[in-house]
Specification:
2 strands, globular, 288 residues, mainly alpha, 3% strand
Length: 288
């Protein structure tokens, strides 16, 4: 039972990191209509930006803020110079997917060329170890979970109670109709790239904090988990991404208590395949 409880605690932390990334990814996809498979590579860039700041003796939490700003700028630039020109030409969605894969390789190998292929880690204390029944968590892990909850609440408030959030929902539902109603869809899309880019930098940094050490390819498998969470919950649904992240995060870590850890990611794909067979639109996706 203690092993199961410990695995459950690790699952909550993993789900917290996954939720931040999945919500940002699905919001970006819903509003911009770009399935940006370079998202995980931008996460890695954020992790290394925070590492650069931390290497000068500055707190990693300050580095996290710098990483958010850097990834926000990087995402806006990628849209302006790469994705938007293809969209203006009327390129098919699959073309943008292929382009995003190319961008992912450029970013990933660019990072590797600068920092090398070695693993690095932040200079920081893991904090005090706390026991909650069978759960064993550090204060840093609790901070990561608190950040994730704050992001989820912030996204909920944004989508439900702000003009920007309503404009994002309208643009995601029907871009042409949104323009006809006076919504500046282009500006909304630009803000979405900036906002989701900042969340991408946040996700990359907390991912690196949680894993302990990381390298330019560390987020490759994380991209697969993120896609599983997004499509399990329902593509384009922020709340579906939250639910999918919780399920995938818990399933992978809890299963590691009973099967070899190298095979724990198989559980995520099994859950995804079952969902695609039973309800292709995801748990919270609208039925057609």
């Amino acid at each position: 039972m203690s092993l199961l409880s410990a695995a459950f605690g690790f699952g909550l932390v993993a789900a917290s990191v996954l939720a931040i990334a999945s919500v940002a990814f699905t919001l970006q996809f819903a509003v911009t209509d770009v399935l940006n498979l370079a998202f995980a590579s931008v996460m890695t860039a954020g992790a290394f930006i925070a590492y650069l700041v931390n290497s000068y003796g500055i707190s990693v939490w300050i580095g996290l803020l710098v990483a958010m700003a850097g990834c926000s700028l990087l995402s806006v630039l990628l849209n302006y110079f790469v994705y938007a020109p293809f969209q203006r030409r009327g390129s098919a969605p699959i073309t943008l997917v292929i382009v995003s894969l190319g961008v992912a390789l450029i970013v990933e190998f660019g990072i590797a060329a600068i920092v090398g292929g070695v693993s690095v880690s932040y200079t920081m204390s893991p904090g005090t170890t706390l026991h909650f029944g069978g759960l064993v968590l550090t204060t840093v892990q609790l901070i990561i979970m608190a950040i994730s909850v704050a992001v989820m609440l912030g996204v909920h408030a944004l989508l439900r109670y702000t003009r920007l959030g309503k404009a994002m929902r309208a643009t995601a539902a029907n871009r042409m109709l949104a323009r006809s109603c006076g919504i500046r869809a282009g500006r909304v899309i630009g803000v979405t790239w900036a906002l989701t880019g900042a969340l991408c930098g946040l996700a990359g940094t907390v991912f690196a904090i949680n894993t302990g050490s990381f390298d330019p390819t560390s987020t490759d498998i994380f991209l697969i988990l993120m896609l599983a969470a997004v499509f399990l919950g329902g593509p384009g649904s922020a709340y579906g991404a939250m639910l999918g992240a919780l399920i995938i995060g818990l399933a992978t870590e809890v299963s590691a208590a009973y099967i070899p850890a190298d095979y724990k990611y198989v559980i995520a794909f099994v859950a995804l395949l079952v969902m695609l067979a039973v309800r292709p639109t995801g748990l919270l996706g609208a039925r057609t």
